[in-house]
Amino acid sequence: MIDFRYHLVSLVAVFLAIALGIVIGTTALNGAVLDDLRAQVTGLQEDKRNLEDTTRQLQAQLDTDDLFEQAVGPALVADTLTERSVVLLLDGDDVSEDTVEAVTALIDDAGGTLTGTVRLTGGYTDPENDAALQNYVTGPGLPTGVTLPSTDDTGELVAAVLAQVLVTPQGVVPEPDTAALSQVLAGLASLEVLTVDSSSVQPADHVLVLTEGTLDGDDAQERLDGLLDLVRALDVAGSGTVVAGDADAAGENGLVGAIRADPETAGLVSTVDNVDTAAGQISSVLALGAEGEGTSGQYGTGEDTQPVPPVPAATP
Question: If you average pLDDT over every residue of the chain, what do you get?
Fold first, then answer.
C-alpha cells in the first residue's frame, strides 16, 4: 500500500524539480540578459568615443575658421568707415571685453574713428527710475538747444536727449558739441543709469550698440521698449545704428530679437546675432559702413538673416 511517507517523498521531489528548473532557467536567462546589457554598454561607449572625436574635429574646424576670419577681417573692412566716426554703446555689464577690443580694432582697420564708450546700467530701463529721469530731462539741467518731443513717455524723452548730443546729424558737419554731451552724460551718470568707460566721449556719425544675453523678470518687455526707443532715436538722429549681440540676445527678451520682431525698427536698424565670433565682429563693422550708404539688414546665423553684409568691391 502507498503510505503517507511515499506521498511526502513525491511532493518533495516535485518541489525540488520545480526549484531546480527555476534556478536553471533563471541562470540561463540572466546570462542572456547580461550579455545583451554588456553589448549595449559597449555600443554606447563606442558611440560616446565617436561623438567626442566628432566634437573635437568640429571645435578644431571652428577654431581654424575663427583664426582665418581674424586674419582676413582687417582686409575685408578696410576703408569702409573712412572719415566716419563711431561711438560704442554697451548694454549692461555682460558685454565681453574681448568683443569690445576686437570691434574697436576693426573700426580702426576700417579707417573709422572711435569717439568713446558709454555703458548703460540696468537703471536706464528700470521703471522705478522713471520719475527721476523725467524730472531731469524736463528740468533746467539740459544744455541749450536740446529739444524734447511732444510726449510724456520717459523712454522716448531720455532717448531723444541722448540722441541729440551723442550723434551728429547725417550730412551735417558741425563742430562736435562736447560740452553739451558731457553735461548730459554727467547728469545721467548722477542718476546711475549709465557710466562713461573711456577717457572722453565725443559725438559721432554712427552708434554701435553691443549687447549680450536677455532681460528677465515681469518688466522685461517694458525694459526692452525703453531700449528700442533709444535705438530708434540714435538711428534717426545720425548716419545709422547697428545693434550687435550674441545668440541669446537674438532670442526672446533679447535686444536683437526685440528689434527683429518689430518691423518698424528692423527696417531702420541693422542687427548682428553672432558678435561673440570673428565673423560677427566683421559683420558689425561692415554693417556700419552699409548704414552709411543707407542700407539696413539683419546678419548672422539666425532665421531670415544674411551671413554677412555686402562686402564693398575693391577700388581699382
Answer: 86
